[in-house]
Model the fold of this input.
Amino acid sequence: MAIGLASDFQIYDDQLNGGMVETLVQQTAAFNAASRGGIRLITNRLRGNYEYESFFQNISSLVTRRDTTSVAAATDLALPQDEHISVKINRKVGPVAQTLDAFRKIGRGANEQSLSFLVGTMIAKAMQVDQLDNAIRAAVATIGAQSTLIHNVGSTLSTSDLVDGLSKMGDMASRVVVWVMHSATYYDLVKEQISANIDGVANFNVATATPITLNRPVLVTDSAALTATGSPDDPYYILGLVADGVTVEDSEEELMHAEIVTGLENLVVRLQGEFAYNLGVKGAKWDVSNGGANPTNAAVATTTNWDKVAADVKDMCGVRIDAYS
Done:
């Protein structure tokens, strides 16, 4: 008698589709309270390509010696004025397209909502990454034009380098509220402190793998904007930002549109979106003539596109430490 066995059958394993999607893994919990306000994200609907905000600069030699033996005419001092200029960054999402048949084959609803649900989480994360990376690019570039705000390490990051970095702000070092660094330099700092302080009270830091950072939190994000070219042979940038050091303004209403596309062999659902945000740096203005409207990432990272408007560098966005890993 021929008896059928399991090996005679084609066995198909169940494959479950749980709706999980892969998103960008870069740390983006960086805005507002997460960075002590060093990188601020706000909503402010703005027309045009730039936002202009005027301010009065400090008056040089406002207080001077008075000669009690003279009645000569005194020289008037002008009240200087300049402006902060932020630039609008325009972005598109997608378009992303998929046949409705593909959704039916995996047991999902064949409609616009299915694509919106799956891609929505990816979009939100990608928007945050884009905003954070450009905020970092702007800060790196702005500080890059001020050599007195840069500490060059020439090797791996150590605790003393944080002190040297803060010293660039002189008596205003207390304005620095957060460190922003790549994980490579962060763990270099942890290892340096383990080696230097293996005994005594510092064992607490060894146990928690939390480095001493001079009472300032560390925002660790593996942003390509924190490296010169993305190559390990180039230095990493460590930023020490002041409050409101960089401002990202959600300046236009986001628009996401999904539609069914006909006229093809298969029905297709397509999703596309648009949004925009303004980017501003404390103590600097976007160079409208050189940088232009709707700049590329490379333009945002160009030092000469951010012009210093603060009379004193201590009134700028912070300091920069250049270190290797």
Observations:
- Confidence is low (pLDDT under 50) at residues 1-21.
- The radius of gyration is 27 Å.
